[in-house]
């Protein structure tokens, strides 16, 4: 007995074909969006590769571009199949292509599921890459005259301004590194000299942050130097007053941005894995089982599987076993020849 069989008349077949046609062309539009989103995501990763130590993975955007192109091609062909299915002459020409096409669609849906999993799992890799990359970016902020790091300062400043963040975890990360180059330090000044000599590693550390950490929405002019020194500023207490710099760390801010993109990708891919293959199977079987193909008014039966679910599964397992035994026999037959040589 067929699995999930349904009765169809002419009106139901026409509605099914029209509905599938619309669904396939909607999937083509989604494919274009996926392709565009893949290019956008790749550009965004490239744009901030410096703060990710150039270790960012482009697996997801590359797969997304591939899936977008495949989706457009497969679904456009599926739309043509549905459009031509109600014409007996055109359907007879298209019929040999149905089975390979549906197998191809099943493989494509498996690729979509893999990409959905990657969209969520790769977020952990992005988080770890950002944590290490931002840590190194802050450390190399001052190296504007070092080859390979010339634009690190600009990249990090633009990141803090764009994402309204400061430091890796928070603004205190800047207190732990020397972010002003020795080129701009007056070593003849006793204050500067004492600060450098008082540090074990000979670094010029201070409780200050770069200008890009300033919050322009604060009513008070930005206090970016001597943040923990209450006496250095009038009517100021760093423990109670809300500082006029960004409190959120850039790791959290940038990760939220990338995870938002990847979650959107996952949701869009889940929407793409629609029941178009099942609908096409119903339509093709409903057209094949028409008692009189020349009479479009006659009723027919459509199904998802020709046999029951258990019978289909048993047949599939038996085919796999037969294929495995055939391989063993071929290997056994080949071994005497190998010994003879």
Automatic annotation (TrEMBL):
The chain crosses the membrane at residues 20-41, 62-81, 101-130. Belongs to the PRPH2/ROM1 family. GO terms for cellular component: plasma membrane. SUPFAM superfamilies: Tetraspanin (SSF48652). InterPro entries: Peripherin/rom-1, Peripherin/rom-1_CS, Peripherin_LEL, Tetraspanin/Peripherin, Tetraspanin_EC2_sf. GO terms for biological process: cell adhesion; visual perception. It comes from Xiphophorus maculatus. Pfam families: Tetraspanin. Keywords: Cell adhesion, Disulfide bond, Glycoprotein, Membrane, Transmembrane, Transmembrane helix. Its main location: membrane. It is a multi-pass membrane protein. The keyword Glycoprotein applies. PANTHER family: PERIPHERIN-2 (PTHR19282:SF202), TETRASPANIN (PTHR19282). It comes from the Eukaryota. The lineage of its organism: Eukaryota, Metazoa, Chordata, Craniata, Vertebrata. It is found in: Membrane. This is Peripherin-2. The keyword Disulfide bond applies.
